[in-house]
Design goal:
The complex is a heterodimer. By secondary structure, chain A is an all-alpha fold. Chain A has four helices and no strands. Chain A folds into two domains: 59 residues; 48 residues. Chain B has one domain: Four Helix Bundle (Hemerythrin (Met), subunit A). The chains are: A mainly alpha, B mainly alpha. At the A-B interface, helix 1, helix 2 and helix 3 of A face helix 1, helix 3 and helix 6 of B.
Chain lengths: 128, 214
């Protein structure tokens, strides 16, 4: 580390760009992409053209893509060095959200499968 | 490598080291630290929502013989809600552009439109809730409906709080002008508002679209 190294600075999440043009382009592009992805989501959900069992997975992928669009174009979260703190916090948040959701759904699905009344249980009830 | 004689020594443990744990410049300014702290709050809010999503996903089929998603949800209504919130988020971004240029008219105008679109979203949601409760599909009907009202209602409560915050910010900008602390608060509000739209993307996908697949 030397004192002459160009000064690395941080940027707050959602902080507007210095250039009004690039800022406006960012929002318009974000709106366009979000509208496109939302439109595709609603179409995918209502069409019968696509393979049924894959639709739910496709919708989840579209939703994650749209969340990415919102983060990049509306909240200005980028991969640049001035955004490292914001990205690291986001990564931790995503990790926890992922663990909570996948873990809960996984465990609860198995729990439901293992706790359901079996035919033997029903018979015991009838006998007593 | 600089030596102690060249650099001012601030909080050093030994000579020649520049490492104060905060870099050469000390802590960041409030303009960075405050929105960053708010970003951490927003992310923890998303963790809160993830628990509600997980609950909903576990209970979505527990309808107890009552009405299910297919009978209750109207996709057209949800499409209008989605449009309203997305446009609201977009116009909020325009308000931030105007605020950075300290343009009072465009800032206030954009914030009014942001708020009106937010109100449209909220009224449609309340209409949907009232309609469902009127049909006997209230939160006490089944585990599915309890988790639905908790998840979507929690988002609606956030939007309501956001609208109150928005009104407060408009009043503060009007009364105090584009002071540094006011603009900082406005930035935090915009982060909050964009985050609510991100959560809504997950809600309309998981609850309304996947829930009503044929």
């Amino acid at each position: 580390m030397t004192e002459h190294e160009p000064e690395l600075h941080n940027v707050a999440p959602g902080e507007p760009h210095d250039s009004m043009l690039s800022e406006t382009i960012s929002y318009v592009l974000g709106l366009g992409l979000a509208l496109l992805l939302t439109g595709i989501s609603f179409w995918v959900a209502s069409t019968s053209v696509l393979w049924g069992p894959g639709v739910a997975v496709g919708l989840v992928v579209l939703a994650i893509a749209q969340m990415g669009v919102h983060l990049v174009f509306f909240l200005h979260i980028t991969s640049g060095p001035d955004n490292t703190n914001n990205v690291l916090a986001l990564a931790f948040g995503v990790l926890i959200v992922f663990l909570v959701m996948v873990g809960t759904i996984w465990i609860m699905a198995h729990l439901a499968a293992n706790m359901g009344p079996t035919p033997e249980m029903t018979n015991i009830h009838l006998q007593h | 490598m600089s030596t102690a004689s060249e650099t001012p020594v601030v909080g050093l443990t030994h000579l020649g080291s520049e490492d104060t744990g905060l870099g050469n410049r000390g802590p960041e300014s409030k303009a960075i630290v405050v929105p960053y702290g708010f970003w951490l709050f927003v992310l923890s809010d998303m963790v809160l929502f993830s628990t509600l999503f997980a609950t909903y996903a576990s209970l979505a089929r527990a309808t107890d013989g009552g009405p299910g998603p297919l009978q209750l949800f109207d996709r057209n209504l949800v499409a209008v809600e989605t449009m309203a919130l997305l446009l609201s988020s977009f116009v909020c971004g325009l308000a931030m552009i105007a605020a950075k240029r300290r343009n009072m008219l465009w800032t206030q105008g954009s914030l009014v439109v942001t708020g009106l679109l937010g109100l449209v979203f909220l009224f449609i949601e309340l209409y949907e809730f009232a309609h469902m409760i009127g049909e006997g599909a209230g939160p006490q009907r089944s585990a599915f409906l309890s988790s639905f009202f908790t998840l979507v209602g929690c988002h609606g409560a956030h939007v309501t709080a956001g609208l109150l915050w928005l009104g407060t910010m408009m009043a503060q900008i009007w009364a105090k002008g584009f002071r540094q602390d006011i603009v900082r608060r406005l930035l935090c509000f915009s982060v909050f508002w964009h985050a609510l739209d991100i959560i809504w993307v997950a809600i309309f996908t998981i609850v309304y679209l996947i829930g009503t697949l044929a």
